[in-house]
């Protein structure tokens, strides 16, 4: 029963991108950017990331960044070249990584008022939709707000890094999951009874995947289980060694490499670790 | 869309890697003489000299965007007052991320 609910959660959120799901494994269904219009996400991005986004296909209007459908985006930067016209206001947003053209349609007094508050040279936060027009990428802006607390700047860029990490990791795991769906279960069960996740999702220890080695993945998977995520102090190294039936020095290596990737962190002391993913 | 002139997030440590390039840094103003230099403390607690004339009175924390002209100084083009309170630790972390593993998201 637990297995099934975990599975459904994945199916609903896998197309979205930003929403962290409980388990990060999806065994049988392939990752395709076209699914799940309901799971549209708001991505914090830098202009550099946008410049590197590519169009998924000709008939689709959307772009892909880190394998995720880009619909709504938020950026933070300095506003320049503000040009007010009758029905729209255009400006350039420079966030230190690049400049992008932005358009804001002004249909109501509320919109005009909002645009009057922002001036050239001000730091602003924008929310909008990424559009390609005649080969150029542009932003159709829904909202522009001046930045008042400058901690927002550090926060926004940290957010961009976080979401990027999350999406690329999700994508690696899903790519790996779709690759060999015929892995024999018997080779795999190095995990013993504490485990509740679907054993067919696991890969044998020797199998090297995109980015995460077999053992690293096992350790990460164990730490990402909801009961482990719920524990404030994380999981002791010895418990990992016992449950995964692996020698301690292997666990240590795995933890070190996961820590350097930013996937786990030590909690109350250097023996306890927790996954950085959200429960 | 133009990514040709980025301003790299730097603190004092990282400034030396980008001498001659456009950088952005937050400093805590220590003293500003009227003669076109401001001495400030970077987000990693080291001294930086900012050359240029600020457009007006400066708050405690200021972000400068300009060209790094030595290991310890920046020729500022744009000055932005960041107010009197700021979490320099977060900004410092962002500088390190932007120059380290996540450089490809920034420059």
UniProtKB/TrEMBL annotation, chain A:
GO terms for biological process: DNA recombination; DNA repair; DNA replication. Keywords: DNA damage, DNA recombination, DNA repair, DNA replication, DNA-binding, Nucleus. Coiled coil: none annotated. Residues 89-146 form the OB domain. Its main location: nucleus. Residues 164-270 form the Replication protein A C-terminal domain. It is found in: Nucleus. The keyword Acyltransferase does not apply. One of its GO terms (cellular component) is nucleus. Signal peptide: none annotated. One of its GO terms (molecular function) is DNA binding. It comes from the Eukaryota. The keyword DNA repair applies. Component of the replication protein A complex (RPA) required for DNA recombination, repair and replication. The activity of RPA is mediated by single-stranded DNA binding and protein interactions. Required fo cell division in meristems. Involved in the maintenance of transcriptional epigenetic gene silencing (TGS) at specific loci (including some transposons) by regulating histone H3 acetylation, 'Lys-4' and 'Lys-9' methylation. Belongs to the replication factor A protein 2 family. This is Replication protein A 32 kDa subunit B.
From TrEMBL, chain B:
This is Replication protein A 14 kDa subunit B. It holds the Pfam family Rep_fac-A_3. It is found in: Nucleus. Belongs to the replication factor A protein 3 family. Its main location: nucleus. Coiled coil: none annotated. The keyword Magnesium does not apply. InterPro entries: NA-bd_OB-fold, Rfa2. One of its GO terms (cellular component) is nuclear lumen. Keywords: Nucleus. The lineage of its organism: Eukaryota, Viridiplantae, Streptophyta, Embryophyta, Tracheophyta.
């Amino acid at each position: 029963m637990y297995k099934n609910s975990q599975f459904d959660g994945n199916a609903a959120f896998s197309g979205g991108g930003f929403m962290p799901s409980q388990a990060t494994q999806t065994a049988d269904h392939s990752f395709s950017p076209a699914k799940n219009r309901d799971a549209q996400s708001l991505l914090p991005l830098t202009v550099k990331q946008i410049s590197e986004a590519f169009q998924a296909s000709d008939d689709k209007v959307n772009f892909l960044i880190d394998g995720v459908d880009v619909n709504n985006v938020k950026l933070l930067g300095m506003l320049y070249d503000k040009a007010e016209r009758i029905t729209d206001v255009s400006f350039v947003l420079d966030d230190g990584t690049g400049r992008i053209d932005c358009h804001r349609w002004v249909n109501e007094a509320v919109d005009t008022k909002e645009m009057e508050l922002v001036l050239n040279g001000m730091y602003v936060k924008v929310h909008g939709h990424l559009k390609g027009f005649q080969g150029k990428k542009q932003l159709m802006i829904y909202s522009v707000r001046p930045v008042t607390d400058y901690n927002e700047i550090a926060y926004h860029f940290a957010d961009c890094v976080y979401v990027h990490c999350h999406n690329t990791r999700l994508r690696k795991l899903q790519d790996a999951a779709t690759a060999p769906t015929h892995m024999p279960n018997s080779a795999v069960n190095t995990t013993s009874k504490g485990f509740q996740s679907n054993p067919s999702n696991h890969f044998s220890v020797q199998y090297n995947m995109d980015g995460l080695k077999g053992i690293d993945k096992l350790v990460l998977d164990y730490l990402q289980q909801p009961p482990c995520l719920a524990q404030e102090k994380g999981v002791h190294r010895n418990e990992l060694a016992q449950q995964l039936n692996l020698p301690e020095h292997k666990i240590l290596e795995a933890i070190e490499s996961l820590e350097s990737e930013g996937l786990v962190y030590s909690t109350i002391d250097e023996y306890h670790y927790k996954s950085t993913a959200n429960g | 869309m133009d990514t040709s002139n980025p301003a790299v997030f730097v603190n004092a440590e990282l400034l030396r890697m980008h001498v001659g390039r456009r950088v952005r840094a937050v400093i805590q103003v220590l003293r500003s003489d009227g003669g076109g230099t401001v001495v400030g403390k970077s987000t990693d607690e080291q001294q930086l000299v900012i050359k240029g004339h600020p457009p007006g009175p400066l708050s405690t924390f200021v972000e400068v965007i300009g060209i790094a002209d030595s290991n310890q100084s920046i020729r500022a083009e744009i000055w932005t007052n960041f107010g009197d309170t700021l979490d320099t630790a977060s900004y410092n972390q962002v500088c390190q991320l932007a120059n380290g593993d996540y450089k490809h998201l920034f420059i």
